[in-house]
Amino acid sequence: MPVKRLFSKYGLDNHGLTNVRKIHWNHNTPMLYEDIIRNGEGSLMHLGPIAVRTGLHTGRAAKDKFIVEEPQTGHDIWWGKVNRPISIEQFELLFRRLQAYLQGRDVYVQDCYAGHDHRYHLPVRIITETAWHSLFARNMFIQPTVEQLDSHVPEFTVLHVPNFQAIPEIDGTNSEAFVLVNLRRKLVMIGGTSYAGEIKKSIFTVMNYLLPQENVLSMHCSANIGKDDDVALFFGLSGTGKTTLSADPNRQLIGDDEHGWSDDGVFNFEGGCYAKIINLSAESEPEIYATTRRFGTILENVGYDNVTRRLDLEDASLTENTRAAYPLTHIPNALREGVAGQPRNVVMLTADAFGVMPPISKMTPEQAMYHFVSGYTAKLAGTEKGVTEPQATFSACFGAPFMVLHPSRYAELLADRIREHDVKCWLVNTGWSGGPYGEGKRMKIEYTRALLNAALEGALDNVEYEPDPVFNVLVPLSCPGVPTEILKARNTWKDKKAYDKQAKHLARLFIDNFKEYENQVSDEMKSAGPKG
Length: 532
Prior knowledge:
By secondary structure, this protein is an alpha/beta fold. The chain contains 14 helices and 30 strands. The chain is globular.
C-alpha cells in the first residue's frame, strides 16, 4: 500500500526556520496522544480525553498582544488601548532570537484552514514546540484532505513557542509573554504563555482584518440552525453562555465562537469548539458534557483524581477558566459543512453583574447597533490574567481585543445585514437577577433556554411588550414556561429603590462608554441607548 504524503512541499525554510531537530508534520490525533504522554505534556483521563496544565497563564494575556506598525497596513488599524503598536525592528529582533532558540529542537506542524466558505477560507500553518498545542490546532481548525496537504501554502503562519520568553527591556513587550501580529509578513509569534486560546484568537484577529475588506462581517459569535433552516447568531464574551446556549439538542450547531456573514449567509471559521466547562453538568449541558468523556478532547486546567483519572468539573483550584477543546464532530448534531443561509435572529448575550437588565428584550436595529458597539458584560474571574472577581466591562463588537479595524466598520456591516434580511434582534441577560453579584442569583439556564426557544420559534412575536424605563428596550410581559415575575428585572428585587439606583448607575456607564464612538455613528444609534 503506497505511503500517503502528509506534508506540504512548502517547507519550514520558507519561514526562516532551519536546523530544527525533527519536524512532526500533520500528525493525527492518536500520534499526538502518544507524543503528549511520551513528552510528559499531559495525562490520559477516564474514557479518553487528555488533561493538560498551562502554568501561570490560565487565560488570555490581553495586555501582551501587539500589532507591528508599518506603512502598508498601519493606516487601517484601530490603534489605541486594544491594538498597541510594536516596531518592525523589535519584531525582527525577537524573531531572530526565536529562530536561534528553535535550532536543534523538535517542532510540530499542522497545515489547515480557517473559514468553511471556500471563497473566503484562509490556508494557515500552526507551528508549535509541543504536541498538545498541535492537537489543539488540529481540533480547532479545518483539516485539509491528503491531496490538499501536498500543495498547501499558508497565507498566515502562527509560530507558537510557549517556553521561549521575551525580555521586556529589550523587546518592548509588557512581560515575558507576547503575541505579535505582523500583517505584512503574515506571521504571528506567540511566546511565554501556554494558554492555547492565544492560537485560535490570533487567527481570528487576522480574519477580522481581512474579511471586512471583502464586505464580509467577521463576528465573535456562536451560531446554530433550526429545522426550518432558521439561523440564529449568539454574540457574547467569555462566560456569557454563547457556547452553551448554541449547543441545543433541537438545533444544529454551526459553530461556537467565530463566524463570517457574507451576502450568501453565515459560515464557521473553525473546525472545533473551545468551551468553558467550570461546573458543567450532564443535565443542563449534555452535549458539551459528553465531549469531556471523549477521546481527542483536550481538557485545559481541569481538576481530576490522579488515581482514578476521573474529572472534577467543579474544581476551580487552578482557574475558573477551565476549558475543553474538541472537534466539532464531537457534537452529534453539528452542521459539519459549517455553512448556512441568512440569519432570522440575532441574540446579544450579557452576564449583567448588576442584576438590573431584563432576562430578554427585543431591540430595534438601532438598539442592536448600540449594544453591538457597546458590548457590555461582566468580565468573569479567571478569563484574563489579573481578573480575580467579576467586573463590569464594555468590549466593542463583543470582542474588542480581536477587532483590528474601528468598531464602526463592523457595526455598519451588521446594520446592513440586519436591515437587508429583516432580522429580529434580542438582548438576553444570562447574569444576575434579584440583586447584583454577591446578593442576587445567576439566571437559571432553564429559564434562559425557554426564553430563547420562545424567541427563535416565534412564540414572542405576538405577546404584549412594555418599554424598559431605563434601558429603552422592549420587555415581553409573558413567555411560555417562564414565571412572569422574572421578566421585569425590577420585580425580582426586594428593595426597589436599590434597583433604581443600580439601573441608573449602569445606564450612566453605558453613556460614558459610548462617548468614544459618538462622532462616528448616526444620531439614531446614539439615541437608542439607555437613559441616564
